[in-house]
């Protein structure tokens, strides 16, 4: 990451406002997710298994990923600033409802449905952030802006996880303590919405939608549900055709989906290892899992420093291939012993890979997708990002042991990463690089 270019980006007042909105929301995401993880996986009265872990991830990830295309259609119609203002407010209200369920000791269908809605609403927020970024920085600054904002946002989310863990130590691990953590998360979500109000109206687009508002084109009555669904399906077809005409974008989406599936298997293994192998109790298990997340977050930060420098020399496509190959090597050397310290080092390196690949994919999409399609494409991107992870969790649940030690599974992941690196590099070399793409 070039310091001079970053200083130029940070001088942009609108970028800083968008960036502040991201940080406040992702800090809260970390608090919220630790509250849920502690309540579902690391409560003293609950025993974590691969099946339970997969069920929890499926409930919280797979269904709301289906909202991706719907989010994209509306993001391409609504002012993105308004989405960034009101989505955190809605999430705060929903989190308070979930806190009430937790305080009442409910952890059944109603609880998971509440969590599902909270996370589902976040699709609108994250997709709007990605679609809005090109409106606050120049095209030639996108690689650095992505590296800085997305990665530091992720690091802040890990910091939020640490904050959530500290609140858990203070409030307690029971129902009441978890409910208090969720109340704190609701207050932080409101802060994110407040920061978003400082962004100028109409700045973030979509410009066509803004022009329609000014000319009264959106003054018609609200469409019926059937019309909305038809519009979503038509929008998906249009978005698919748009991507099909841009092979770089299609290949990037394939790479991130492939990586997320394999990463999902490794993360489920990590959770089970921390809960039932590396530690001798749920509290110690949560502490160990938090450590793994922390070192992984450090890897995300390292990727932000490395990726902009590397892609200016070897291209984004080559860097993705090298990272997939690096994931295979690191898991082979550090993962197979199933020991805590080597696994933690592997978590750091896999964090570098995860964020490095994501930064390349984000920038590729922002460079190759037209503005009026960005909301739909990034919403589908979010859908794939989470659906492949949930699918990995569901698949792994059928064979992973309770303590997470599965040598054959890890070897299969290693082989898949290695094969994926070769396949991606071969495919990328056949795709003509756009003339305006950054190196």
From TrEMBL:
Recorded GO MF terms: transmembrane transporter activity
The keyword Repressor belongs to this UniProt entry's keyword annotation: no
Subcellular location field: Cell membrane
Name under which the protein is recorded: MFS family permease
PANTHER family recorded: INTEGRAL MEMBRANE EFFLUX PROTEIN-RELATED (PTHR23513), MEMBRANE PROTEIN (PTHR23513:SF17)
Gene3D superfamilies in UniProt: MFS general substrate transporter like domains
GO CC annotation, single: plasma membrane
CDD domains: MFS_MefA_like
Keyword tags: Cell membrane, Membrane, Transmembrane, Transmembrane helix
Transmembrane feature ranges: 21-42, 54-76, 83-103, 109-133, 145-167, 179-199, 249-269, 289-311, 318-339, 345-365, 377-400, 406-424
Classification via InterPro entries: MFS, MFS_trans_sf
Species: Actinomadura coerulea
Membrane topology recorded in Swiss-Prot or TrEMBL: Multi-pass membrane protein
């Amino acid at each position: 990451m070039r310091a001079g270019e970053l200083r130029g980006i940070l001088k942009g007042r609108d970028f800083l406002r968008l960036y502040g909105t991201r940080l406040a929301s992702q800090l809260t995401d970390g608090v919220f997710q630790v509250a849920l993880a502690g309540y579902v996986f690391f409560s003293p009265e609950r025993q974590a298994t691969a099946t339970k872990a997969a069920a929890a991830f499926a409930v919280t990830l797979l269904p709301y990923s289906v909202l991706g295309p719907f989010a994209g259609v509306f993001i391409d119609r609504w002012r993105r600033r308004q989405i960034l203002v009101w989505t955190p407010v809605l999430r705060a209200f929903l989190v308070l409802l979930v806190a009430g369920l937790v305080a009442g000791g409910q952890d059944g269908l109603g609880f998971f449905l509440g969590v599902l809605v909270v996370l589902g609403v976040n699709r609108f927020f994250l997709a709007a952030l990605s679609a809005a970024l090109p409106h606050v920085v120049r095209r030639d600054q996108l690689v650095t802006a992505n590296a800085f904002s997305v990665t530091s946002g992720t690091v802040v989310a890990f910091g939020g996880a640490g904050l959530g863990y500290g609140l858990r130590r203070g409030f307690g691990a029971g129902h009441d303590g978890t409910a208090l953590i969720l109340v704190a998360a609701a207050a932080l979500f409101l802060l994110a919405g407040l920061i978003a109000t400082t962004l100028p109206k109409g700045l973030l687009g979509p410009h066509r939608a803004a022009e329609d508002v000014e000319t009264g084109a959106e003054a018609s009555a609200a469409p019926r549900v059937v019309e909305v669904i038809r519009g979503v399906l038509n929008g998906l077809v249009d978005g698919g055709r748009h991507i099909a005409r841009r092979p770089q974008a299609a290949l990037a989406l394939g790479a991130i989906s492939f990586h997320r599936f394999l990463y999902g298997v490794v993360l489920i293994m990590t959770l089970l290892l921390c809960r039932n192998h590396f530690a001798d109790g749920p509290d110690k298990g949560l502490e160990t899992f938090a450590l793994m997340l922390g070192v992984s977050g450090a890897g995300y930060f390292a990727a932000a420093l490395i990726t902009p420098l590397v892609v200016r020399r070897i291209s984004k496509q080559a860097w993705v291939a090298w990272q997939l190959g690096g994931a295979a090597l690191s898991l082979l050397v550090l993962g197979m012993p199933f020991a805590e310290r080597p696994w933690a080092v592997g978590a750091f390196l896999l964090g570098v890979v995860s964020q490095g690949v994501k930064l390349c994919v984000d920038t590729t999409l922002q460079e190759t997708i037209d503005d009026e399609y960005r909301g739909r494409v990034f919403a589908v991107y979010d859908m794939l990002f989470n659906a492949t992870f949930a699918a990995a969790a569901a698949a792994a649940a059928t064979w992973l042991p309770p303590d997470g030690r599965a040598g054959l599974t890890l070897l299969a992941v290693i082989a898949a990463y290695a094969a994926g690196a070769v396949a991606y590099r071969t495919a990328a070399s056949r795709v003509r690089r756009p003339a305006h793409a950054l190196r």
